[in-house]
Amino acid sequence: MKIIKVLSFLFFCLLLVSVIPAGNASGTKKIYDPGQIGPYAVGHSYFMLNDPSRNASPDLAARPVAVDVWYPVDKKNITPAAAKAVYVLDPYYSSLDTTTSADWELYGIDPSWESLAPSSDKPFPLVMFSPGWGCPAWLNMFVATRVASHGFVVAVMYHYADAWWPWEPWDHLAVASLNRPLDVSFVLSDLLVKNQMVGNLLYGLIKSDQIAASGHSLGGYASMVLAGGDPLVCDFFYEDPLILEWLGPPPSEPNTCVPALPDSRIKAIVLLDGSNQILHFQELAQITIPTIGIGEEWDILNLDPLYGGGSWQARQHAAIQGHPCYRVDVAGAIHMTFTNLCEAIGVLRDKGILSSEEYGWWHDNFCQTSVPSLEVQRLAAKYMVAFLKTNLAREQGYQSILTPGYALTREQFIEFFVTEKRNPSSIDDEYPDFFVYFPHQPGSEQFRAEKDPKPAPLIRHARIRR
């Protein structure tokens, strides 16, 4: 990662916009640093849904979906009587005690409070968040609490049969890939119903025309599908010999060999190290809504060719046709630092769920990074908020953050890319089987990579094994 400080009067004037009041369609609003806690306190609600259109197993006639929702609250309503948010660790089997926001605040996660009345400034834009394969909702608490504090409702699903806990069932990766976007659309429909229910906590809370999808890893794939679809979910798993050897063939129709349809209610997507390899290059090109991909930096990615080498982040950026489409590389980050895994294992140890030895294994394998996990989380949330404020909420004052110049002068661990394309048709006309991309920003050097490499890179994931 090149650390370059470029100071000039022009850049100074550009960056000044990000720290002064600016007008927007709703009137004049103060601009808050999206990398810090925003102007709102954060409320939390948890509930369980059941989708009768899908059988979770022979024993379950409907697929369960556990949902955590974080939302803006007026700070004046935070009194000594306000109860800290309650987080359920094991929603499907209830075999573990719950935790509270206070348990997580010890490790740097932003506070939230249980079932408080939403802010009087409602309604707010909505972000639907899908975790990575094998990851529970509470591994994404950092992004939910921080983004909600800036004026967004954030709904995070705990996908059934992901087997984070060893007593949970485990679905084939292809089945999980099909179910993820279906879970998001199902929960979204329920939230919009609650949004219309007088007396419900979420009544009048959501701007139904300002909805984004986001996700980490396989949840990023779900966001891409919700934006552009997947003509045949199972094809990737048959095409990749490494996946076939590792997992075996996916279940056949109707379980996985069917299309996954886009959801027209989704107006923008935010990808955290998203699993774009499940989609063919031309399938990624069907995405035409605003997109930002926040992930690992080229030097880290290039260390492991099995994961697509340095082109992991650049591939989706080159293919996706949304305007704008941004690529944000975070130096020093690894796949799981785009979650709050390193903070979660501390909570699990404190609760006696992880032994000291188990904690040490997780810490040594996932948390010994050159950039602390909380800093990676801050950067991910910062660029997510700036992008959503600009391209979903349509507020002014954050666009200056979404530039290479801002990254060069203000964030030493960020490389920001606006486009990989020489011109709109160059991807197909000049390189029918390959795409070209920039490994670093700034710089003019370009590399070439296959659009659809075989074997495709494996999905990275983590789950507790006890």
What does the model show?
This protein is α/β, with parallel strands linked by helices. The chain has a single domain, classed as Alpha/Beta hydrolase fold, catalytic domain (Rossmann fold), CATH 3.40.50.1820. Helices cover about 30% and strands about 20% of the residues. It is built from 15 helices and 16 strands. The strands form 4 sheets. The chain has a 10-stranded mixed beta sheet with strand order 7-3-4-9-8-10-11-12-13-14, with helices on both faces. The protein has a two-stranded antiparallel ribbon with strand order 1-2. Strand 11, helix 8 and strand 12 form a beta-alpha-beta unit. The longest helix has 22 residues.
Strand neighbour order, sheet with most strands: 7-3-4-9-8-10-11-12-13-14
Under CATH, the homologous superfamily reads Alpha/Beta hydrolase fold, catalytic domain
CATH topology: Rossmann fold
Q: What is the first-to-last residue Cα distance? A: 37 Å
Q: What is the name of the CATH class?
A: Alpha Beta
Q: How many domains make up the 3D coordinates?
A: 1
Radius of gyration: 21 Å
Q: What is the average per-residue confidence, as pLDDT, rounded to a whole number?
A: 89
CATH architecture descriptor text = 3-Layer(aba) Sandwich
| Largest beta-sheet details | 10 strands, mixed
SS-based class = alpha/beta
Query: Which residues sit in consecutive blocks of at least 5 with pLDDT less than 50?
Result: 1-27, 461-466
In percent, how much strand structure appears in the residues?
A: 15-25%
Number of helices: 15
Q: What is the molecular shape?
A: globular
How many individual β-strands?
16
- Percent of residues in helices comes to 25-40%
